[in-house]
Model the fold of this input.
Amino acid sequence: MQMNIFNGHEFVADKVISLKKRVAEWGREIKIVSLCFDEDVSSKIYANKKQLLAGRIGINFQIINLNFNCPIIEIKNLILKLSNDKSVTGIMVQKPRKSVYNDQLLTSKQIEQLDFVSWWRKITELLPIEKDVDGLSPLVIEKLRKKQNCLVLPATAKAILEILATFNLRDKRILLIGKSDIIGWPLYWQWKNQGLMVEIVGKNELAKKLSDDKQLKLYQVVVSATGVSKLIKGEMLAEDVILVDVGEPKSDFDFESCVTKAKFITPVPGGVGPVTVWALLENSLTLSQFNREF
Done:
């Protein structure tokens, strides 16, 4: 078996050069504004990486720092202001980790005292779809479910589609682990609408599958985005499986045991992450070109 460890940095090198050229040819300023929450250090690191690559490509990437105590109404007013600013091409919110939010909520003075899912949805619902550069709005999933076109896909989902574009998935069973609004569900509807054999599972459904030694061996492609370190072991998987790891901050797959089973695997870090940054920045060019027409 010839096994391929994916290198995200090498994969996007030519794509970055191409995007830089396309941005220069477009000739109009592209500006992304990213809202980032101070309490989550990882989010700030990711936002800074995006800002760095954006600068290399010629895209203006501005970071606005907030904190979890910021009332939703203030975030709403900020997003409304950015929505009405014609110089702003795209607006995004760097999604913090649920665990960080929950830890802060215990000692927070936040007026709303919302659980993470409700809090995140209240924020993403505010994003205007014509400036939703990271595809975070719930409207994106709704459009995909109804087989309607979206301006852009969530950047991580788009990155995974790009990574797997060289594989023929038509005859493969695909398992998506994690019902994320920016990874699992967008991929599910995208592949489901193409007639592919795809299944999505959350925590409870996965536990049932893991209780049966043969369950995960039924799939030829596994995409995992749970944030549970080393959740999937090599002995659970079929030979020649294609593995896409979107674990954060550590790998969902036990790399040492899974790499011996997989014919293709994306590592953490250096796998999906670099492609996601490129996908986000390409989305901004798409939005700039779309909004110029109206």
In short: The beta strands are 4-5, 31-37, 60-66, 90-93, 173-177, 197-201, 221-224, 241-245, 262-265. The two ends are 52 Å apart (CA to CA). The first helix runs from residue 8 to 26. The CA atoms of residues 176 and 200 lie 5 Å apart.
